[in-house]
Amino acid sequence: MSIRDRLFAAVFDKVMAPMEEAGLAAWRAEVMADLAGTVVDIGSGTGANLAHVPPTVDRLILTDPSAPMLEHLRARLDEVPDGVDVEVVRAPATSLPLGDGEADAVTSMLVLCSVPDVQAVLAEVRRVLKPGGTFAFIEHVAADDKPDRLRWQRRADHVWPHVAGGCRLTRRTGDDIAAAGFEVDDLTRESARKAFPLVRTMIRGRAISPT
C-alpha cells in the first residue's frame, strides 16, 4: 500500500466536493434510480454512490482494487438504506466476485477512464450481468465537440494519468460500451459544472446487456 495511494484516497472527497454539490450527486441519483435486486458497483472508491442506492436493491456488492479507498468507504456504509445486504470486496473490475449472470445491474461512476483495459472490464460486466441487465454509468470523455479542449486533453494525457490515479482524458467511452455489445438506450452528454476543464465533458446513462 503506497503513500501515494493513501494520499489520493485522503484528498479524493475534498477534490470532488464542488462537482458533487454542483450536480454530479444528482446525476448519480438519476442513473441509479429504480435499480433493483443484486447490484454490483465497480470502482466504488470512497463511497460516493452509497447515498444514492435505492431501497429496491436487495444485495449490494461494492468493489475497488484500492485498500485505502475502501477504508474510507467502510466508514460510510450507514448511508446505504436499511435492509440492503452489503458486501465490500477488494477486487479489480476485471475480476468481479460473482458468477455468470448473477447481477441485475452494474454501476460504474468515473471508473472506466482509469482502468488499463476498458474492453476487458466491459466484458467482465457483461459476464456478471443477467441477460437484459442494466449497466448504469457516468464517465468523462474526450471533448470531441470542443476542439480546443480536446487539443489540451491530448497534450495533457501523457502526464495526467501519473497524477490522477491512471485517469485517461481522451477515451470515447460511449463508443466502447456500444462496441462491447451493450444496447445504449439512454445517454446524455453534458458539461459538468465545477469540474476541472480537462474532465468537464461527461456522459451518463444506461445500457442493456444482450439477451
What's this entry about, in short?
This protein is an alpha/beta fold. It is built from 6 helices and 7 strands. It has a 7-stranded mixed β-sheet with strand order 3-2-1-4-5-7-6, with helices on both faces.
Please write out the topology.
Blueprint: H1 3-32, E1 37-42, E2 57-64, H2 67-74, E3 85-90, E4 103-109, H3 118-128, E5 129-140, H4 147-156, H5 160-163, H6 173-179, E6 183-191, E7 201-208
Parallel strand pairs: 1-2, 1-4, 2-3, 4-5
Antiparallel strand pairs: 5-7, 6-7
The helix count comes to 6
What letter string, H or E per element, gives the SSE order?
HEEHEEHEHHHEE
Record field, number of beta strands: 7
Q: What is the average per-residue confidence, as pLDDT, rounded to a whole number?
A: 95
* Percent range of helical residues: 25-40%
Pick out the low-confidence regions: none
Helix/sheet category: alpha/beta
For the largest beta-sheet, the strand count, sense and barrel status come to: 7 strands, mixed
Strand order of the largest sheet: 3-2-1-4-5-7-6
Cα(first) to Cα(last) distance is 40 Å
Name the assembly state. Answer: single chain
Tell me the strand percentage band. 25-35%
As a whole number of angstroms, the C-alpha radius of gyration is 16 Å
Globally, the shape reads: globular
